[in-house]
Amino acid sequence: MQTNPKDQPQPKQPTHGAAPVSFDGRVNLTPTRPDKLLRLPRVQDLTGFGKSSIYAGVKTGTFPAPVRLSARAVGWRESDIFQWIESRTATATKTA
């Protein structure tokens, strides 16, 4: 007599060190994609600033700092640039 493999108890899946979490039925939304990293020419297009103005703002802390991509390459988080632009436009409308 052959037994059906589906009738046999299945081994419990390992949790790889994580504590088992019960599922409560709710869906947790996670970002669909990580933040894009923008290179200098795109940041210049978005802000209207030149290279020296961008790096001067980074040095004084008035502009978002770049993320190091390699020994000779950096990029800016898209969300940081858009937040900076939003804060500048919000400031401009308050003073106007």
Automatic annotation (TrEMBL):
- Which InterPro entries does the entry mention? AlpA, Prophage_regulatory_activator
For this protein, the record's Pfam families field holds: Phage_AlpA (PF05930)
Region ranges (Disordered): 1-33
Q: Which PANTHER family match?
A: DNA-BINDING TRANSCRIPTIONAL ACTIVATOR ALPA
- From the Swiss-Prot or TrEMBL record, give the protein name: Transcriptional regulator, AlpA family
Superkingdom of the source species: Bacteria
Which source organism does the UniProt entry give? Rhodoferax antarcticus ANT.BR
